[in-house]
């Protein structure tokens, strides 16, 4: 037995979500999520991790409300956000909504104390490495702070008057508050200090935008949304003077977004991600972009890298930046020399890395490492001598491939094994995927197969996933195929281009080709197969349902139906760039619409959706469910009124797995339908 055999044990597994290193490199803190005592929610806490991996991790915070978003002050004190109480008896009234405040845990220990507050709560913050200046992101009602928030609450007013798009983001409504940036000096022992508004009247310019601060605290660099015609928007990169609030543009283009800034150690430049917008003819593309803070011209740092980089982090000497990028079902650590653009791949294992920090001497990179068979955990990668730099070998693994050194978090026992499978598509393109096999799968006992198209569509199966765990399915005897079809990342821009504007047929052909190759194995039962997909994977599940009856069952989660319904998504402009205006190009939307093939569906379907999913609005599921019922398709609809694009609370996630397993048991294993107890 493993934790994946019992859903209660699985939900109780701790999950590492983030990692932060102190400026002197002596302290490493991880954010760890665990089941709350009541079992109804998850709570996050901060854990101290030994940067050398000698001492076991130790929990630092223990409030019932949880803590997140840690960052260090220059003196080693730890800042974090939490809705915890301060123990003074002066907390907010019971009828007032609790919100996140900024807290400080002294470097020499003791009790945390509140360091900053804001009426709307504090969403995020950044700390200047040298000066300790803090920049806060907080939702604020437009206009003067005259108590309108309290008056709205007292009057029971929740309405918002919108004048621009968007109106929603993932799982929450936008407005009437707007995200603003505030600057405050280093917290003093006297308690919460004052903070000054750097971005009055930003509208929605800062919604969801990442920001960074220069080491001296003089400048904040942030993404800044700029409205375009017909409901579109693009993201520029701006610098804001923390003394005057003066804002100036650093990077902008009519056909691109600039985001995820990282400021160089000397404060002279910024590395960010530049995404070229999709057009009717071409898919989006991403690269690393360098911008001098003195107003000089920006430049592409990775023009020869046919991959999409993410998460740049600077080395202390300012000569090198580290980043991740999907590559053939992995996401290695790469480095780029800022002066020359020379790129090197630094890891060669079957893993996905998110770089968190580099040690002050440049000898180690700290990251969260994950894999299909390993949950995220902190690791340390030893670099080459900083004086020499890493051995550059463009797009190939460096000779001394870095072996990850684990930093104290264990990996749960797994109920099986993972291997790699390959196939060739009808148009002659090689494709690949991961195959998770249950422990008992063999030629004598072949396993039923679950095909799982991934979401995105610009994504890849490269990492562990808690929400769609193939290991839960393996514990129940299923093999799970995790393929990367057309539109997937990690195989070059031409591979993405194969499916651009043609979401259905190319990916379908790829998925059928790799399914054929997989069921040809003697440890797979070709007669017992099913499809499960969420988001774009759910779209593909719907497309598959209308194009073949080879599968015994199909589970579709958060899926588009009809495709044109995505014009009401919170990011409708993204889809409009690829497919055009539905009123002007109806044929382009119709060609890729799975709903056109409803009359062909014969396979039993389980439809799953959360009402607070604004990326794929609930109307998609309601229409799909209605269409299936009207056409006599055997189907069920699992509806979550208070969940979003993902099913996040442990109780609902448990019911999600129970319902899926019961549906598969009925249609794949031939067992009698048994409804989960709590449904």
Walk me through the structure:
- This protein has 679 residues and is of the alpha+beta class.
- Among the domains are: 13-85 and 99-128 and 136-158 and 182-193, no CATH class; 416-667, Alpha/Beta hydrolase fold, catalytic domain (Rossmann fold, 3-Layer(aba) Sandwich).
- It contains ten helices and 38 strands.
- The longest helix has 18 residues, at 650-667.
- The radius of gyration is 25 Å and the shape is globular.
Summarize the topology.
Layout: H1 7-11, E1 15-21, E2 28-35, E3 42-49, E4 58-59, E5 68-72, E6 78-82, E7 101-105, E8 113-116, E9 124-127, E10 134-140, H2 148-155, E11 168-169, E12 172-173, E13 178-184, E14 196-197, E15 211-213, E16 219-227, E17 233-241, E18 247-251, E19 256-263, E20 269-276, E21 285-292, E22 299-300, E23 309-314, E24 320-325, E25 333-337, E26 343-345, E27 352-358, E28 364-371, E29 374-382, E30 405-406, E31 416-424, E32 430-438, E33 447-451, H3 470-475, E34 479-483, H4 493-497, H5 505-519, E35 524-534, H6 536-545, E36 553-557, H7 572-579, H8 586-591, E37 605-610, H9 619-630, E38 635-640, H10 650-667
Parallel strand pairs: 33-34, 33-35, 35-36, 36-37, 37-38
Antiparallel strand pairs: 1-2, 2-3, 3-4, 5-6, 6-7, 7-8, 9-10, 10-13, 11-12, 13-14, 15-16, 16-17, 17-18, 19-20, 20-21, 21-22, 23-24, 24-25, 25-26, 27-28, 28-29, 29-30, 31-32, 32-34
